[in-house]
Amino acid sequence: MTETHVEAPSLYPPDPEFAANANATEALYDEAEADRLAFWAKQANRLSWDTPFTEVLDWSDAPFAKWFVGGRLNVAYNCVDRHVEAGIGDRVAIHWEGEPVGDARDITYSELKDEVCRAANTLAGLGLKSGDRVAIYMPMVPEAIVAMLACARLGAMHSVVFAGFSASALRARIEDAQATLVITSDGQFRRGKAAPLKAGVDEAIESLGDDNPVRHVLVVRRTGMDVPWTDGRDVWWDDTVSNASAEHTPEAFDSEQPLFLLYTSGTTGKPKGIMHTSGGYLTQASYTHLNVFDIKPESDVYWCTADIGWVTGHTYIAYGPLSNGATQVVYEGTPASPDEHRHFQVIEKYGVTVYYTAPTVVRTFMKWGRELAFGHDLSSLRLLGSVGEPINPEAWRWYRLVFGGDQTPVVDTWWQTETGAAMISPLPGVTTCKPGSAMRPLPGISAKIVDDDGNELAPSPDYGEHVTGYLVLDKPWPSMLRGIWGDEERFRETYWSRFAEQGWYFAGDGARYGTNGEIWVLGRIDDVMNVSGHRISTAEVESALVGHAGVAEAAVVGATDEHTGQGICAFVILKAHHADMSRDQMIDELRAEVAREISPIAKPREIHVVPELPKTRSGKIMRRLLRDVAEGRELGDTSTLLDPSVFEAIRASK
Ligand code: WT7
After folding, report:
1. How far, in Å, is the centroid of ligand 1 from the Cα of 100?
2. How far does residue 596's CA lie from ligand 1's centre (Å)?
3. Which residue has the higher pLDDT, 361 or 441?
């Protein structure tokens, strides 16, 4: 195999033809630099405001921001009604592709508006008021997006709970937010089988006992399976929404009206309800979607493969694309349903032009092999995006080559549930990219990499010794979180205490500057190891390992070492065609590869060849559990693992 050591360019300048038609230009940076608040005011004015704002930012109560003060708007009106009023009601908003092949539906903006109005009328009829919380526990069906927009239309907050989460996770989120309504479906299709969902809702509500805040459960019929039923409390979507009036006048709400809660895990066990509000969130969602993905609403077919249970699904499926009047694909299933060709078939079927996915998906495709793509026409693709974790240069190049015909821009977008929208990313047509780097803050955004004392780091060489620092956001941004639900202290402590003196937001990520001052995000700071006083990122070692032609996936953790402080412990999945090489030979080769790619200091102390890695349902590797294995400890909480049985195999490899 020659994949690893082919001469690959390290700089990817924009294609002149792409640049000539790009939405963004270099001038965007200058404009934001010259007057940041005026720049954001201009972006906010791409939206329709019922009452114009009188002040762009009020930061006097930091870290609680108010953006577009005095302005009033309706988020759902901005995502649907205004497009219909502008005469594009016949444009497809959603090409919905169900998991079962052939189960598909196109929904125009007019149809979406009618359905959102019907749902809003139904929710109001069930007693829902502005400020109330609604838990949405649904698969990737159009009704899930309709439900979110119906909440927004009424000024109620949605709390979408990923449908792969357990009843107890749902219960905790219902309880924390005191949700009065749950919107769900009878069940969901997962890898060809119908699995129950409504039953889990009942279990969650039952376990809340006398403290149950839920008054109604609204149920979409998706699989046709039998469901447990409580008369008076439970109602079918078909019997209510489908018969409701499609006339609904949207009410304008304050720019700071809470829009949603989204729970995310932190360093402690209790999930944090991250709160986002309306005007600022929608402004940045819309602006970044338009410029980072170069969206031409009249011609593009955009596809974000995320689930609405994550922030990516909120910002880059629900609010960003719809606020821009774009056409998008929403797909219900996994990349391997019914087989590994599915994503390629969906791209071909709809002529997808912009594809946004996660590095873990890219590496899965790498594992399956590029031959899979060869039988498909992917020429409609003109831009690729990545999000969720650092994308290793090898995967970046493979993605561009196999999906993008070695021609399309690849935008590596860094952001978080907390930031609400993309923050650090190339601008396609403008930025010269380095594979593996998210490059620089978007126009209007300010970020720095600093040391323990808050001093900004200097650029470091692309290869050799790196200095790692803390990634901070030193200026407020429109889509920033407005707090953690019900826990002001935890909000201050988690994000604003590390650099309290300077008033900066600490993102929890380690990063370094490259030779051109571009940003390399290295992952969460607790994923940075300390070996003999050298800081080494788990992501960097993993990148070196998966850069080897024989490795499909790798996870690296630091384990206590009496000599060096921490020792590097690696878990790797090998590609099938390398199985013929002896295990010991392979391990020796991999250690040498890491020494070559980073430094001998980064050479793993141990490498375990494993059949599978422990992952959460969202695809994040659970390093905490691998650390337990590496340290020979009892396993910690495995409840969020996709497949708890992987540990037997991993243990056997030790
Ligand atoms: C954390 C946030 C943003 C939506 C999905 C994840 C990591 C995210 C990148 C990237 C390097 C990245 C960071 C961040 N991350 N995107 N492009 N390069 N790291 O949202 O679950 O809130 O996770 O994901 O560590 O802090 P999330």
Report:
1. 31
2. 28
3. 441
- Residue-wise pLDDT for 313-365, tens only, equals 999 999 999 999 999 999 999 999 999 999 999 999 999 999 999 988 998 89
Residue 613, in any domain of the structure: yes
In a domain, 617, yes or no: yes
Pair 157, 133: CB distance under 8 Å: yes
Does the pLDDT value for residue 216 go beyond 50? yes
CA of 69 to the centre of ligand 1 (A): 29
This prediction has a pTM of 0.84
Contact between 196 and 225 under an 8 Å Cβ cutoff? The reply is yes
**389 CA distance to ligand 1 middle (Å):** 5
Question: Does residue 118 carry a pLDDT above 80?
Answer: yes
Residue carrying the six token digits 């141990």: 606
Would the CB of 412 count as within 6 Å of ligand 1? yes
Does residue 631 form part of some domain?
Answer: yes
Tell me what percent of the residues of the chain surpass a pLDDT of 90: 74
Cβ–ligand 1 contact at 540 (below 6 Å): no
**CB contact at 8 A, 311 and 417:** yes
Q: Is residue 600 part of a domain?
A: yes
Ligand 1 atom having least distance to the Cα of 618: 21
Dump strand ranges (E) for 424-564: 447-450, 469-473, 483-484, 505-513, 519-524, 528-531, 534-537, 551-561
How is residue 437 written in tokens?
Answer: 């780097």
- Expressed in angstroms and rounded, the spacing between residue 567 Cα and the centre of ligand 1 is 25
Q: Which amino acid, 592?
A: A
Q: What is the pLDDT of residues 406-432, one digit of tens each?
A: 999 999 999 999 999 999 999 999 999
Tokens of 132: 């109330």
Lowest mean pLDDT among 221-230, 276-285, 626-635: 626-635
Euclidean distance between CA atoms 95 and 115, whole angstroms: 15
For the ranges 145-159, 173-187, 257-271, 578-592, the lowest mean pLDDT is seen at 257-271
Cα(311)–Cα(319) distance, rounded to whole angstroms? 11
Closest CA to 336 of 303, 354, 355, 361: 361
Q: How far is CA 316 from CA 504, 576, 626, in A?
A: 26, 35, 31
Return the CATH number at 542.
3.30.300.30
* Closest atom of ligand 1 to CA, residue 524: 25
* Amino acid, res. 556: V
Cα–Cα distance list, 591 to 430, 551, 575, 581, 601 (Å): 38, 12, 17, 15, 11
Contact assessment for residue 287 and residue 422, using Cβ atoms and an 8 Å cutoff: no
**Residue-wise burial string across 526-556, b where 16 or more C-beta atoms lie within 10 A, e elsewhere:** ebbbebeebbbbbbbbbbbbbbbebbbbbbb
Mutate to test the pocket of ligand 1, among 414, 433, 480 (most ligand atoms within 8 A of CB): 414
What phi, psi does 27 have (nearest 5°)? -60, -25
Give the tokens for residue 584.
């010991």
Q: Which domain holds residue 581?
A: 528-653
For 55-76, the pLDDT digits (tens) are 999 999 999 999 999 999 999 9
User: 545 CB less than 6 Å from ligand 1?
Assistant: no
Which residue owns the Cα nearest ligand 1 atom 2?
A: 416
Question: How many structural domains does the chain have?
Answer: 1
- Whether 93 contacts 327, CB under 8 Å: yes
pLDDT band at 466 (very low <50, low <70, confident <90, very high): low
Give residue 575's pLDDT band: very low, low, confident or very high (50, 70, 90).
Answer: confident
Lowest mean pLDDT across 4-18, 20-34, 275-289? 4-18
| Ligand 1: centre distance to CA 387 (Å) | 6
Pocket test for ligand 1, best of 274, 415, 425 (most atoms within 8 A of CB): 415
